[in-house]
């Protein structure tokens, strides 16, 4: 088996479905299920809370009981069942319950895939993490491009079927042979239990975690208000999707070249560069609120997001013991990718109501402290 190809196909298929769920799901609930915007916002917010709980607590717990392959397959099947439950759901209460259910299973696939990749790199079976992860970003872009065509022709009803078919493909791939190391059940070690709090005994883990939490939180305004801000600055509607995809394309390019050009950089150096790129990005959007500069600033997503994520994976692979990787991934996914984004979305929303540009410049309250802490860590790791 070609491990690189296996990991790439897993990333591609998962992010193909994520490219359907993340940008389109709120619209699907509003336009096909008939719920209000406020109800949809409440549903997705509560889903984000469950997502954080699941990745922080449930995923690390199950990872101590089951192999990576079993866990991936179990969560994928749970996701598939949850999507099927949407079909008969038509009331606010039923849609809320199904959304909470899918947010228990579905988002855990993200740290589960990164954990599998980390294990394969540590066991010398996967040579290029960045190359495989870039296929995830490619899948995300492909989903957006293809779905735009189908929703334009057939309406938003196709969003559910696109997510359903993509998840079925992911489940099918999970039933195929995988690298044997991923089928190994975790062995309990009474002398060295993989407790989550023990992560903070690992050198600099707490500091690195705070840095990546701040780095990811700085994207809250972009993720939530980027689409309507482009409308605010009079971007042509047919270009909005293209402009938003510039960030993902930049991310793809970074992951493709990361192992070749950034392997020699320390995690601290990469985190500092990521924070610098993030700060410059939000300052540009604030000072020059026009379509051209916003489009150019999208290229910096390769630094603000992709480089920060790559740096965390670099630190994890080098410093975190095998049995603690699921705990570290669960904590990163919950605190950096879920809850911090939720908190700063509220902060960004408050600023957006005052002046849309303020919501973007407000994100430097995350990026500048993360840059200072990254420079401190860079000195400590030498």
Structure description:
The protein has about 375 residues and is an all-alpha fold. It folds into two domains: about 1-185, Growth Hormone, Chain: A (Up-down Bundle); about 195-380, Growth Hormone, Chain: A. About 80% of the residues lie in helices and about 0% in strands. It has 16 helices and no strands. The model has no long low-confidence stretch (mean pLDDT about 90).
Topology:
Blueprint: H1 3-33, H2 37-63, H3 68-86, H4 92-105, H5 109-122, H6 129-154, H7 158-174, H8 205-217, H9 220-232, H10 237-261, H11 267-287, H12 291-297, H13 301-319, H14 325-354, H15 356-361, H16 364-380
Helix pairs in contact: 1-2, 1-5, 1-6, 1-7, 2-4, 2-14, 3-4, 3-5, 3-7, 5-13, 5-14, 6-10, 8-11, 8-13, 8-14, 8-16, 9-14, 10-13, 11-13, 11-16
Membrane topology: Multi-pass membrane protein
Protein name: MFS transporter
Subcellular location: Cell inner membrane
């Amino acid at each position: 088996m070609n491990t690189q190809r296996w990991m790439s196909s897993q990333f591609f298929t998962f992010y193909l479905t994520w490219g359907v769920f993340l940008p389109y799901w709120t619209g699907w609930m509003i336009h096909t299920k008939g719920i209000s915007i406020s109800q949809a916002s409440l549903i997705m917010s509560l889903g984000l809370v469950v997502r954080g709980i699941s990745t922080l607590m449930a995923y690390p717990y199950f990872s101590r009981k089951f192999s990576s392959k079993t866990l991936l397959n179990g969560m994928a099947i749970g996701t598939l069942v949850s999507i099927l439950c949407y079909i008969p759901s038509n009331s606010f209460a039923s849609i809320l319950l199904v959304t909470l259910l899918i947010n228990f299973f579905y988002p855990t696939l993200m740290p589960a895939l990164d954990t599998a990749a980390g294990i394969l790199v540590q066991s010398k079976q996967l040579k290029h993490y960045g190359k495989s992860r870039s296929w995830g970003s490619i899948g995300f872009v492909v989903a957006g491009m293809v779905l735009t065509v189908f929703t334009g022709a057939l309406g938003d009803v196709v969003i559910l079927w696109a997510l359903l078919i993509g998840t079925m493909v992911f489940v099918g791939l999970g039933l195929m042979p995988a690298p044997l190391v991923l089928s190994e059940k975790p062995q309990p070690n009474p002398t060295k239990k993989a407790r989550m709090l023990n992560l903070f005994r690992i050198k600099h883990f707490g500091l690195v975690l705070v840095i990546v939490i701040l780095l990811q939180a700085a994207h809250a305004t972009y993720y939530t208000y980027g689409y309507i801000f482009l409308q605010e600055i009079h971007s042509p509607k047919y270009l909005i999707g293209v402009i938003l995809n510039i960030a993902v394309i930049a991310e793809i390019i970074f992951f493709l070249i990361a192992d070749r050009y950034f392997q020699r950089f320390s995690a601290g150096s990469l985190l500092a560069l990521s924070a610098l790129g993030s700060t410059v990005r939000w300052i540009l959007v604030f000072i020059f609120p026009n379509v051209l500069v916003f489009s150019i600033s999208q290229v910096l997503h390769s630094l603000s997001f992709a480089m920060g994520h790559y740096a965390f994976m670099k630190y994890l692979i080098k410093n975190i013991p095998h049995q603690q990787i699921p705990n570290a991934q669960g904590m990163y996914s919950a605190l950096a990718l879920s809850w911090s984004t939720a908190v700063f979305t509220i902060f960004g929303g408050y600023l957006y109501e005052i002046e849309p540009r303020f919501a973007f410049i407000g994100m430097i309250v995350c990026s500048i402290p993360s840059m200072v802490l990254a420079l401190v860590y860079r000195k400590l790791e030498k």
